[in-house]
Amino acid sequence: MTEQSTGTQSFIAVLHTAGHKYRITKAVNGKFFAIPKVATISDALELPISEFKSLYEQAGSEEVIGTLTAPIAADSEIWGAGVTYQRSRDARKEESGIPDVYQLVYEADRPELFFKATARRTVGTNANVGIRADALTSVPEPEVAIVVNKYRELIGLTICNDMTSRNIEGENPLYLSQAKIYYGSNAVGPMIRPIWEIKDYSSLAIDAKIERGTNIVWQAQTSLAQLNRSFSDLIEYLFRCQSFPVGAILSTGTGIVPPLDISLEAGDVVTINVAEVGTLINQVVITPIDINEKENL
Length: 297
Ligand code: DO4
Ligand code: MG
Description:
Order of helices and strands: HEEEHHEEHHEEEEEEEHHEEEHEEEH
Largest sheet: 7 strands, mixed
Number of helices: 9
Structural class: alpha+beta
Strand order of the largest sheet: 6-5-16-10-11-13-7
Bound molecules: 2,5-dioxopentanoic acid, magnesium ion
Strand content: 35-45%
Distance between the termini: 37 Å
Shape: globular
């Protein structure tokens, strides 16, 4: 029997084990099981979805023990899409000295796509995310991320916190890479919900908050119904003129952005919940250092 027919939820989870930094498993009821013939997310994303699903459904006999980490592999590429929600467009226009580019990209056929992270710059749930020591203002970007195999098939959904150094991007959009890519600038997880277990993802609720000590300093919500692009359109553009032999994770953009007077501080806790997908929780540190080398190796 499949999880769908029994109503039990399952997730694609990655564990840091004694022998493997990024071991793929199937999580059911708090336990993690080996998936036959598949050791990593990259192995899974090299297979057509029908083959991977069939192996995934066979998992359940060999339990794997380890610590939950980001649902990626050592060679994963994580990409971002930008200005895909009206709220993101408006926030960029407010913060930027050059607002027109955001209006133009929101309306254009071609989406904004950017390289976001490698495994080294990515953490999972309950790990630390970073704010740049040289940024004046930093914000979380709570996003639904799509996991796509090498055949452009959508395998599942996860959550991405596309951490952003707001004043650096605001000063000049050409500083985007510095605003978006640094140690600890990306959190993904906690796990991947297989797409075949989600009946209708078109309007999943997305909630986020920043806690500082015992106070909630910001919280907001949106839904995937507000996304101004389709997943298939984003995938089609991502795969134009390039291939992804071990698949890719594409974060689909933020629909909630804090007001200009809110900036992350060390010690803050960022929580992002996406219905049917899970809750990603990260504590904030100031990062001149390689978070993954310090904490997760
Ligand atoms: O244009 C800059 C990046 C936008 C972004 O990351 C988002 O809208 O989520
Ligand atoms: Mg973003």
